Amino acid sequence: MSRDICVYLEFLTEGHKAQIRETARRTGFVPHFFTLDQFEEAKACLQHCKVLYAHSADLLRTAPASLRWYCCSFAGVDLYCKDPALFANPDCLLTNSNVYGVTIAEHVVMVTLMLLRRMPEYAVIMGQRSWSNQLPVRSIRDNEFTILGTGDIGRNVAERLRGMGAAKITGLSRSGRPHPAFDEVRPISDLDDVLPRTKILVMALPSTPDTIHILNRERIALLPADAYVINVGRGTALDQTALAEALNGGKLAGAALDVMDPEPLPKDDPLWDARNIILTPHVSGNMTLGYTCDENVARFCADLENYAAGRPLAGLVDRALGY
Amino acid sequence: MSRDICVYLEFLTEGHKAQIRETARRTGFVPHFFTLDQFEEAKACLQHCKVLYAHSADLLRTAPASLRWYCCSFAGVDLYCKDPALFANPDCLLTNSNVYGVTIAEHVVMVTLMLLRRMPEYAVIMGQRSWSNQLPVRSIRDNEFTILGTGDIGRNVAERLRGMGAAKITGLSRSGRPHPAFDEVRPISDLDDVLPRTKILVMALPSTPDTIHILNRERIALLPADAYVINVGRGTALDQTALAEALNGGKLAGAALDVMDPEPLPKDDPLWDARNIILTPHVSGNMTLGYTCDENVARFCADLENYAAGRPLAGLVDRALGY
């Protein structure tokens, strides 16, 4: 029986490959490495592979029914959950890589501080080479935060805000199950109760049918006028038109979006000109950070050991839930 | 004997005034409050006061020899240490308000992340409404920091970097005395040894004769080309011309200056156009943050209790050292 692994990734260093080879050797597997410009070679190899470590729907679509495990190097796997036709074998295991929490949390801390400390306005002042420094700033210390999503990202954000003296951190999740990173976790069905007392809303939700436009026009109106909205989950989670209108109308203090719908954002989208907005091109979780790449490989190797030993996979995705 | 206190400050709320009145009542003092547009009234009152709580060399200069304690609401008191003629009575006590560590540390975390995550470059990309997201980012986690100055600011910075997973935090101070916020504290005379292995240099030094241009051209050249320089202490602590040249020549990765010499920075200063620089108009420790104002008043009140009880003042400045 085949013990081949097809690895189709761009970010691997020689060290990462050596680490995968060594784990594979110990567990009786043989890895085959391809970069993104070797699609045809990867596809040919995949035909006799049991495991695929990649992030490519196009490649996955070509896999035979003998593929037993697809390890996606990304965290967001909605694409793979929505379309069962991608898997020739419906029992093929799907894992994702929840290793983006650290880098995304650093992004969230950065944009939170940029909003609280009025950096979009100071950028304009300094861009004119003028010198005015009396804009009232606010701080993470003693402030209250609401985090939509209590997974890897939400927890890493909460831990960092806590370290900087946040007064209260409320998490919202589907289950509402408590987690020590949060002062309280409430079910997402309580969202309408929580929004009116939210000062900074951090959105870190996967894309599922339940989360599409979860922050709709009515809910944006529930936020106080001095609230900030930060989205690092999926662009579809909020109503961008309503957000831009609230910002421009002074109904919201500011926003920072790293994810948008669609991406790239069209050049004539009103978001570009919205008041007090920080836009970044989906970089909060990008793969250029060594730590993220190292952890990605480490998690794959750990799950390869699990797989070989017949243990449950740590990164297993529930395709019905979408994460 | 007079038990009058002259308070000449702009930031006080009614709550702050009530707090000062109550502490004064308990300790047998009488406070008199003036805003900055009441200079003449404050000056007239000061003539029979024992205590002055303000930040004004002009007012201090008019004080009689009977003034026993000047509580400066700012942290940087170099101005008052340099010029003995400001004090009619050479034995007048001088205290400063080391309450800016929290807000300045939040500023430092913000600009550190902005530099590591390439925000000056992403601001240009997004300003053109284009969408490119492959600039390699770095993280606070697993990074090494050198902090020049281990006082209130340096410690607050170190604690926050630690909370975000910094690998190593080296402090440098005059004495080199260890402090738990740092992995190690070395005497500032070791600076030349520390700079070549510094990835992020945070400068939080008071202005004294010893710190003027402490980061001179030769020392800037000792930093690695991928290092970042952040200054929140005093603008005079670094050679701005050499810094701009190093940035433009690719000898340094970036810099964030909240303090400059002079301030405001002249419109034709080469710093404005330096590569990968973040300039802010001396806002990191500004008085618009409620927490900073509250702490300022709380420290004054605590030292008023100390003063009345004949105990040493917590904020006492050594005028020979300058802090």
TrEMBL record, chains A, B:
Q: Which Gene3D superfamilies would you find in this protein's record? A: NAD(P)-binding Rossmann-like Domain (3.40.50.720)
Keywords (A to Z) from UniProt:
NAD, Oxidoreductase
Read off the InterPro entries from this record. D-isomer_DH_NAD-bd, NAD(P)-bd_dom_sf
Name the source's superkingdom: Bacteria
Q: Which Pfam families match?
A: 2-Hacid_dh_C
Q: Does the keyword Translocase apply?
A: no
Upper classification of the organism: Bacteria, Bacillati, Bacillota, Clostridia, Eubacteriales
Q: What is this protein called?
A: D-2-hydroxyacid dehydrogenase
Q: Where is the D-isomer specific 2-hydroxyacid dehydrogenase NAD-binding domain?
A: 110-284
Keyword NAD part of the UniProt annotation: yes
